[in-house]
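Self-study notes.
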Amino acid sequence: MTRALSSSWQRIAVLALLFTALVTSPAFAGKPTVAVLGLEVVDPTGQIDQATTAVARDLTDALRSRAKMPSNPYAFQPGSEKELIDEKLIKNCDNEGLACMSQIGKDLGADFLIYGKFEKKPDGYIVTINLLNVGKKKFEKSRSPLTIPHGAAKDPTAIGSAATKAYNDLVGVVANGTLIVRSNADHGTVLLDNQPKGSLTSGTLTLSLSEGPYRLTIEADGYDSSQETKVTIRSGETITQSVQMLETKTKKPDELKHTTTGTTSAGGTNIWKPIFVASVIVGVGAGTAWGLTWHYMKKEADIPDTNGVEGVDRPGPKTDEGSCGNKNFEKATHFQNACKYQRWNTYAIVGTSVSVALIAVSGYLAFGRSDSSEKAPSGASTVGRRTRKPAFAVTPVIQTDGGGAAFRIDW
């Protein structure tokens, strides 16, 4: 009785082990298996250098790493990491014929077999990779030729990218990688190769991208544009890239121009500048009129009149209001002209005076209220004080003979 029970438990244990192996096997999981043989290095001259062998080994390792990724449509066959040249020797195969390669794949327990050759050429390494359906003894696809430049052979990133591209081409997978962008700016535009790809939300953006190198920048309000960051996307991999943004520097209050209410528009334009220009134009015109009317008044006053009132002396060149208002001289043409120019001269003086005052005020408000400091003299202390620019000044200059005017502008 005891012996019968022991036999039953043994059978149950064996069945449990078989069930576990079946459930955990790649076939039960629904994925066909694949084996990747080491690439065979070939050289028509028979001179194979160690550097070429090392590159072939690195590429083989990268192919196997890609085959082991969960996103792979095949399950990597355990214990299948063999070399193509060794397996051909064991099977006594002269070449990579269908019958020989199918037998190698079958002995490894794989449904599919990836193998190929690696050859050094003057312009780079030429790789030929094949995918064989072991059960059907049929080539599914060939990736030939794959060229790896000599300069990229020592770059693990370049080798990995070449292996991923070759593997995806063989098995028909178009796999993207994932880029997670994080920034201290809550909102902003993420650009790849200067093209907008999305906006940050709470400082994060997730992108699905095809494999390859990208140039990453971020633009956000209130921040300077970030420095360009290079990222490389690989199929099936997730990369997180943090970008630190710098806040845009704002001017300190004492660096800003002082303005008074109504002097500066919302766009920052100082309205006193056009007023200053107009005042200068009017002032120049008024000053010119002042000089001309004085000249003509003197000229007319000095010309004798023949149509004056007989027996009444003309007051001469003096043309004061009392004389100009004297009805005895109404018919004195030149004298009346002098009086007319005298009135115009008065208006010109008033206009010039008002223009000069307006020029001084508008010039000061437009140009003379800046707090910008001038460079202090060598050795002078500038701590606790500020050197202000001299105020804008317009000074009328009366000519020595009393007629006409000129302007002197100081700043």
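Second protein, same conventions, sequence then structure:
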Amino acid sequence: MTQFILRRLLMVVPVLFGITVLVFSILHLIPGNPAQILLFGSNATPQQVANLDKQLGLSGSVFSQYGNYLVQLLHGNLGYSYSSNQTVVAEISSQLPYTINLALGGLVVALGVGIPLGIVAGVRPGGITDKVATGVAVLGVAIPYFWLAILLVLLFAVKLRVLPALGTGSVKALILPSIALGWGFAAIIARLLRNNLIEVYDRPFMIVARAKGLSEWRLLWQHAMRNAVGSTVTIVGLQFGYLLAGAVAIEVIFGRPGLGAFLVARIQEKDIPSIQGVVLLVAVVYLVVNLLVDVAHGLLDPRIRRSWSR
């Protein structure tokens, strides 16, 4: 297992290097000189623009700038925000807890709705419960999360007035954003788990286990779920980036603080270091989550564990 983790870590290194190159390129893809943008309207002289370029680390060749950028990253320095003149690390740290809470809330909704729906549909395929669960899953995939968010606000906040549409001070304020973010993900989990269970129940070892007189409960949890949940765990990791990306629109719709709202504001202000910091953080989190998912998948599937020792 240690060798497997080391191999996966070595595979992450070139990917991480490519991410740093792309993130650094944001600086040169956005039109205009950042120093001129910051000094816009102040009738700055060319010398003042050149001095600010040097202060922001924008002087010199592209390769020297990238080298300095890597050195700063290795020291945990993401630079200073053009807008607030505070460190990007401090600004992201202040917004990150809100986004984590929202992403975890969406994940709870996805797992809490998707797994039961998938089990109900997969154990009795073709029945009424299967059709209802499949219909819910199809609606979840078909309705965009931002449109669902607006519908939830209109129904529960405006019409029924049972849940708040804005704010972060209570658990109630997290319910609607979490549902809007996690419902589509729940539909994906439900459809995948349903198909996996149907396939597992048709395998010979399940037929033999049922012939031995095992109860349906033991068949489901001791045999079927252990073989069907592996790919579900994988899709949870792969879709975690979807939760982070979806949080951008959800935070704006519900007026919540977080990395999404922070990123939108900084894009409008052309605050390049802040944009780079958020993109880099999301990419690193996505890589780490996928590494953890690979390890978890191996622990759940003996066939993958055997391949680790090869």
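Instructor comment on the second fold: The chain is about 80% helix and 0% strand.
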